[in-house]
Amino acid sequence: MDNKEVKSAIDKIDVPKEKVFKAIDKGLKMAGQGGKAKKKKIFAGLATAAVLLGITVASGFINPTMNKVLANAPLIGGIFQEFDDSMGVELETQDAVTELNQSITENGVTVRLTKAYFDGNVVSITGFVDKSVEKGHNEKGEVSFDVNFEHNKGDNDPWLNGQSTDIRKVEGGYNFQWKMEYPYKSIKDNFTLPITIHYINGIKGDWDFDIPIQQEKNSTLAILQEQEYLADGVKIRIKEILTAQASSSLIYDTVEKYKGDDIYILKAIDNKGKVYRFGNRTLLEESVKEDGYHSTARTKMTKLNSNTTSLTFYPQLSISDPKVQQLLDKKSFAFKSERLNLGLKVNEITKKGTELVIDYKFTGLSKELSKHQLDLFENNLKYEFLLVDKEYIGVIDSENPVPLKNHSISMNKVKTINKKTAHFQSTFDLNGEEKIENFKLENTILLFNFSSFVPSKELKPFTVVLPGGNE
Questions:
Q1: In sequence order, what DSSP letters do the residues of 152-189 get, joined into one string?
Q2: N or C: which end of the chain has fewer CB within 10 A?
Q3: Separation between Cα atoms, residue 94 and residue 90, nearest integer Å
Q4: What three-state secondary structure class fits 440?
Q5: What is the C-alpha separation between 16 and 90, in angstroms, rounded?
Q6: CB-based contacts of 409: which residues, under 8 Å, 6+ apart?
C-alpha cells in the first residue's frame, strides 16, 4: 500500500477526530518528556484505534516517538467500555463527561471518584475503591456501598429509587459505576450533588464528596396528544420529549380508573421503522381526582431522530386486583377475584405438627398455558399467600404488606398435585424464621392476591404526530 492509498483509507474512517487529535497531542507531550506510561488494558470495541494502529504498522510508519504516542494516548471511553455503557462512550467523545479525580481515605480504605455525566434523565458517577476494602465483611470480589445523596438518610433518598451499581475487579482494587435516575420534576442543567458513603463492605467511614453535575441544555418537543381505552378504564397523554446529547426522555400522564393499575410503554416505532426502547420510570406527580388515579412519569428513551415525523406507541396494562382474605376457622372455602375471571377453591387445611398444609385448586385458568407460564405460576404461589395473626391485620399496609415479625408468615413450599387441573398444595413452616406466636387456626387470617397470576394486557398501539410532521 503506497502513501496515497494509506491517506485514502484513513479518510474513510469515521472517528471522533478532535478527541483523537487531543489524545495524540497529549501522548506526544508525554513522550517528549521521557515519562514512562503505565500499561493500560485495552477494551474491545474501540475499532478506530485498532484500525489506525493496523494502518500504521502496514504502511511502515513506525518510529520510537510514535510508539510512545500510542502508549500514552488515553483510551477514549475506556472506563465506559469496561461497563458496556454506550451512552458514556458517546458522551466522552463529545467532551460531555466531567473529570473528577476526587479522593478520600477513611479507615485505611481509599475511594476515588473519577468521572461523572448527566444526560437527559440519567446521572452516572464512576470511581475506584482500593483493595483494602477486602478486609470488610463481604466475600472476596464483592463490594457493597451504603450511600446517600444530597444529605438524605436511609431508604428515604429519592436518588436510590432505580439506582444501579456495577463493579469490576482491576489491579489494586475495584472500579465501580453508579447510575441514578434524576428524581425531580424540574431538571437543572448544572448543580452540585453531595455524596456520603457511610459504609463499604461494613467498614464505617465518612467518605463525603461534592460532585459537579452538568449537561448541555435539553431541547423540548411539546406533543400533548391523548389516547383513551374506555373498556379498560385507562387514559394516556403523551406530553413532551426532552432530547439531550446521547438520549431522550419521554414525559407522559396516565389516568387509571382502578387503584393499583399500572401502564407501561413497551416501545415506540417511528415513521421510518426505527424502534425506540424505554427505561425505568421516574414518578413526578401522583393525585386522585374524580375521574381516577392520575400520575405523571418521565422515562429514558432511545435518542429521537431529528427527522422523525410520528411515533407509534405500544402500551401495556398491569391490572391490580383487590386482595382477598379469610379467617381459617373453616376447613374449606373459596376465593373469587373481583376483576379477573379467576377463583381459588381451598379443599382442605391441615395442621401437622409444626407445619400447616393448604390444599387448593384454581378455577378460570386458560387451558393453553405454556410450560413456562405454569412454572412462573407455581413460583408466584410461593409469595402470594400471607398468614397473619388476626389481631395485627390492621397493622399491615395494603400497598406494601411487609411481614410482621412474630405475627405473620409470607413464605411457603409449593407442591404441584396436578398441573392440568391446577391442583396445588402449600406448606407453611410454623416454627421457621417467620412465625406466628401462639398460632391457632381460628386466630389466623389467610390473605391472597390474584393480580400476579394474570399476564399484563397489551393495549392497542396508537400514533402521535410530532410537531412539524405530516401523517
A1: --TT--GGGTT-EEEEEEETTEEEEEEEEE--SSSPPS
A2: C
A3: 7
A4: coil
A5: 10
A6: 386, 387, 403, 428, 429, 430, 432, 434, 435, 436
Measure the N-to-C terminal CA separation of the chain; round to a whole number of Å.
51
Residue 31 dihedral angles phi and psi, to the nearest 5°: -65, -40
Helix (H) / strand (E) containing 377 = helix 371-381
Mean pLDDT of all residues in 23-43:
39
By three-state DSSP, how is residue 449 classified? coil
Largest Cα–Cα separation, the chain? 92
In this structure, are strands 355-363 and 343-352 parallel, antiparallel, or unpaired? antiparallel
Instruction: Classify burial at 347, counting beta carbons within 10 Å of its beta carbon; exposed 0-12, middle 13-18, buried 19 or more.
Output: middle
Residue 261 scores a pLDDT above 50: yes
Three-state secondary structure call for residue 61: coil
Say whether 236 sits in a helix, a strand or coil. strand
Q: How far apart, in whole angstroms, are the C-alpha atoms of residue 218 and residue 298?
A: 14
Q: Mind giving me the DSSP string for 197-232?
A: EEEETTEEEEEEEEEEEE-PPPEEEEEEEEEEEGGG
* 3-class SS of residue 54: helix
Lowest mean pLDDT among 51-60, 217-226, 324-333, 431-440: 51-60
pLDDT recorded at residue 355: 94
Name the residue type at position 105: T
- The three cell numbers of residue 414 are 409449593
Report whether 213 contacts 118 (CB < 8 A): yes
The grid coordinates of residue 126 equal 464512576
Helix intervals (H) in 35-85: 47-58, 64-72, 78-82
The x, y and z cell numbers of residue 462, run together, are 396508537
Residues in a beta bridge with 292? 289
Pull the grid cell for residue 460: 392497542
| Spacing of C-alpha 24 from chain mean position | 37
Scan for cell 470488610, then name that residue: 136
- Where b means 16+ CB within 10 Å and e means fewer, 264-286 reads bbebbbbbeeeebebbebbeeee
C-alpha cell at 341: 375471571
The candidate with the shortest Cα–Cα distance to 185, out of 121, 122, 125, is: 121
- Rounded to the nearest 5 degrees, what angle is found at the Cα of 224, between the Cα atoms of 218 and 228? 135
